[in-house]
Amino acid sequence: MESNNNDNYVLVLEDRTEVKNEKEAGKLSVISGIDDKGGLKTTEAIAANQAAFLKFNSKDGLLKNFMTNFLKQFNNPTHFGLYKVLADNVEQGVDNLRTMLQSREKPENKQQLAEIGVPFEDYLPQQKNATAIDESKVDWKQLAALGLSRERLEQSGELDKMLNWQKSNLLTIAVPIGDTTIYTEARLAFRTDDNDNVGLAIHPLRKEPQLDFPYMGYKFSPEEKEQLLATGNLGKTIEVTPKNGEPFSAYVSIDPQTNEIIALRADRVNIPKEIKGVTLSDAQYKDLVEGKAVKVEGMTAKSGKIFNATLQVNAEKKGIEFIFDNNRGFKERQQQTQQQGVPHKLCGLELSDKQREALDSGRTLYLKNMVDKQGQPFNAYVRMDKEQNRPRFYKWNPDKKQETGKEKVVAVAEEHKTQVAVNNHGKTNEATKDVKEPLKTGQTQPTAEQKQKQNENKQKKSRGRKM
Question: DSSP label at 215?
Fold first, then answer.
């Protein structure tokens, strides 16, 4: 009765709610799906219903997701039993199962039922460990060796993520190699070993995904490479084998920030039957569990707004990804992701690694010789807006408290940089002090026309004095 790992199987439900004694077998039926209300659908175990059977395979994550929803539906699962039966021999398999259940206490039957049974305790919800990482166990010297500090991580908002088991966004790190220091970008995460020691996992930025080399023992086909590069997700589950580990079924995606290939165990992903107020059809649910992209319409956001999106399991996000602009490929979405945060160039000004690092850590910089949309140079104070994840421009230093009665710090809108950008720190410029009309931002010398007017004014004043 034990099925081969490569075989499809069905789940046979034993309903014991109406049995009169312990030795009696319950009503047996084959699982065919879950209805729109989340209820279980079953059908008679005959070959004619083969097309209606919900089929499983040990290599996909469908069973785990089904069991999660099954246990939500039934408050007392002890009244039920679930058993695996080969899909291509259902009638004979169910007859054999019924015989064993009628004498379930016999040692040989007990052993076989244990082998083909689905234990509920393996799928009961476990309390999540929401405890954050203990800061006292973090090796801050290890971070300091990379040019990082606790203060910088805290100011940039990345420390909270890392202490809650998440990866940071891209950070600039300094890697000492001999007498040289190499500056590069990477995502960082805290991880613990078997002895609860906190270590640092570094996920460096790669120029492109390394798809031409075997990944955890799996070699991608040309079609699979194309799929990953086009969507960022493989679109199915594959079996991978980590070093010194057992093989497992996994979803595979590309980290858009680092181009790293990420694998996520399929049996650790919980896909609900209902998402944002929409109950998935059996076909949608099955496709989503298998890793395919599924278009879902009529979902409800927290704001109450109705929206549509394409859903797909994303290994890097460790769950379901909502893709709102499916017409844009992964490369375009990746470019948008990489543009978030501290840019390499700001209004035409190439930022140094130190400048980017300072902005990334939450510091304010006074930047000169930027260029606005009209092509005019300007200077301004710049600080990263953590909420909007974009640089903000200021007329005065936002880190200094303004005295009462003086104008408050105002963020400079993109379209008004020329008018309000700081020029010469407010000091009088001898070369332009006699120019009566407004100066362009960053202007330190009069134009030819302004100079001519200056000379004319000086000549008039000179003639006036002679008279």
Answer: B
